[in-house]
Amino acid sequence: MEKPYVLGIDMGGTNTVFGIVDARGTILHSGSIKTGIYPDINDYIDALGKGIEVLLKEIGGSDKIKGIGVGAPNGNYFNGCIEFASNLPWKNRIPLAQLICERLNIPVTLTNDANAAAIGEMTYGVARGMKDFIMITLGTGVGSGIVVGGNLVYGHDGFAGELGHTIIRRHNGRLCGCGREGCLETYTSATGVARTAREYLEIRKDSSLLRQLDPDTITSKDVYDAAIKGDKLAIEIFDFTGAILGEAFADFIAFSSPEAIVLFGGLTKAGDLIMKPIQEAMEKNVLKVFAGKTKLLFSQLKEADAAILGASALGWEAKEVLFE
Amino acid sequence: MEKPYVLGIDMGGTNTVFGIVDARGTILHSGSIKTGIYPDINDYIDALGKGIEVLLKEIGGSDKIKGIGVGAPNGNYFNGCIEFASNLPWKNRIPLAQLICERLNIPVTLTNDANAAAIGEMTYGVARGMKDFIMITLGTGVGSGIVVGGNLVYGHDGFAGELGHTIIRRHNGRLCGCGREGCLETYTSATGVARTAREYLEIRKDSSLLRQLDPDTITSKDVYDAAIKGDKLAIEIFDFTGAILGEAFADFIAFSSPEAIVLFGGLTKAGDLIMKPIQEAMEKNVLKVFAGKTKLLFSQLKEADAAILGASALGWEAKEVLFE
């Protein structure tokens, strides 16, 4: 019997969303539970299982599902476990794929959220047909999923693609949550943009709409709102952020020479405000042999759907596996 | 009829070496011609063809050769052409694979020299059995070949893996031959080490064996000779070079999480003088999730043989192809 659907689960620090998806990338049914309210992983799995069973009834049972794909922070493709995930309630290594598989009796494939986004983009989005591209997610942090020759790069341990933690300012760089200094993420995540705003407001003397706000609670959204009103300081903050991303992308291109770099996440709403300085800095900094070759694209997936779609795309490649 | 051998051609700026290799990596017969003395590519191909035909007679003809692998500066795997190669006598795009194939009637696969070295290491060397590793060649320049999931990373245009041209010093970095500033190669190639020596001798006042030499003609070999005699300044030059490589490797690991980084080329003769500072800086700078996971290895291939072996390894995957 043919299995026409996949199931995608996206586990975030706050919410876990899930949905049943067909081969065209249409989400047929979806639901969500809170992630952070279950100190015991077994209670979380049980709540998740119950939520999913409601959806399975709608389509006539689990026999219609080819596989489950899960995107989760620090999810490891090779062993199906979550490890080192600082913003989740469970501190130990969690065999997430195995637990979900045992609960629902459907094959499960796990990876981290940025890798899931890359697979989603390749399956349903702007990277369809591309064999070599890099997905960069600009959210609270900066994540990445790297596709080489049509396959996601997992590395020898399943943790490859931490481009948000490459060093873009090597001396006196900003302190990062990872304990090191100068990571790309500290400058170009939504949090990084807010940090830049606070720095600019302190160092600079020129007027800005941003001066009406409490610097301690300023967000990248505030900077965006000011920038589209023509606020010079806010526009310069996007220029600064874009320039740093473009510099970093020039180095990423020297690594895997992708056909495109696809941007996803909250910051991409800034459109040309962020895209133009990225493009300019990327072309200015890239090695001559790569000049003008790598496209810079925004994801075409709706942000609300992308998490489920990205995770679900992994479900198409889910196989019956034995967990360690 | 089974074809037991491959033929490797390594084209350098000065010499082109070639040899017939068996499945165990033994070079049965080899030869060489000068590269730079043929302003017309057809004369070069003719001389190369004649040199190779001498070897083919020794093994009983070209029917015994499964394929020819060629490593050449800026060699493009996808189209079999050399492009942008600044240290070769031919300025246009040269369809090298096609020309050699037509001359000898054996399938030809071309790639750049660092990629060939990586394939050689995977086929006959220290990276046997590895699916994910990065080869770094420390010679006149710094080259790289990246292997992901058992396959070489070519990128969408065939030019991926230019890690010598990632930026390691972003502001006031050394001017590079590529026209940009701060490339890894300007610090960690043999030329870069000599450059560091000249800088140290000018800025510093302490005594050193290196002060007996003409700074303008100092080489990385001179620095090595002084360092093994215990010269403090020379040892510090290796510490500086190794630290920069280690910082760069920490970022490379964030990209593809390789099982190993394999070092090859003249500078590796410095042994622990260069290996220890690399290891130290790499572990100090690497993201926690990768700490202690990536091995740092020296190539086990003899330098005299490695060029031919690396190129020849490509010959095993050579197929009958149509050139554009």
Structural overview:
- The structure is a homodimer of 324-residue chains.
- With 324 residues, chain A is an alpha/beta fold.
- Chain A folds into two domains: 5-119 and 305-315, Nucleotidyltransferase, domain 5 (2-Layer Sandwich), CATH 3.30.420; 131-300, Nucleotidyltransferase, domain 5.
- In chain A, 37% of the residues lie in helices and 18% in strands.
- Chain A is built from nine helices and ten strands.
- Chain A has helices at residues 41-59, 96-104, 113-124, 185-188, 190-203, 220-228, 232-256, 272-285, 303-315, and strands at residues 5-11, 15-22, 27-34, 65-71, 108-111, 133-138, 142-148, 151-152, 260-264, 295-298.
- In chain A, the strands form two sheets. The first copy, chain A, has a five-stranded mixed sheet, sandwiched between helices.
- In chain A, a hairpin with a 3-residue loop joins strand 6 and strand 7 (142-148).
- The longest helix of chain A is centred in the C-terminal third of the chain and has 25 residues, at 232-256.
- Chain A is globular, with a radius of gyration of 20 Å.
- The interface between A and B is large, with 46 and 46 residues.
What is the helical fraction of chain A, as a range of percent?
Answer: 25-40%
Mean pLDDT of chain A: 93
Strand order, biggest sheet of chain A?
3-2-1-4-5
Tell me the β content of chain A: 15-25%
Question: Biggest β-sheet of chain A: count, sense, barrel?
Answer: 5 strands, mixed
- Number of β-strand runs of chain A: 10
CATH H-level homologous superfamily name of the largest domain in chain A? ATPase, nucleotide binding domain
Largest interface: A-B, 46 and 46 residues
CATH topology of the largest domain in chain A: Nucleotidyltransferase, domain 5
Radius of gyration of chain A: 20 Å
CATH architecture of the largest domain in chain A: 2-Layer Sandwich
- Alpha-carbon distance between the two ends of chain A: 29 Å
What's the helix-strand series of chain A?
EEEHEHEHEEEHHHHEHEH
Q: Would you identify the regions of chain A where 5 or more consecutive residues have pLDDT less than 50?
A: none
The outline of chain A comes out as: globular
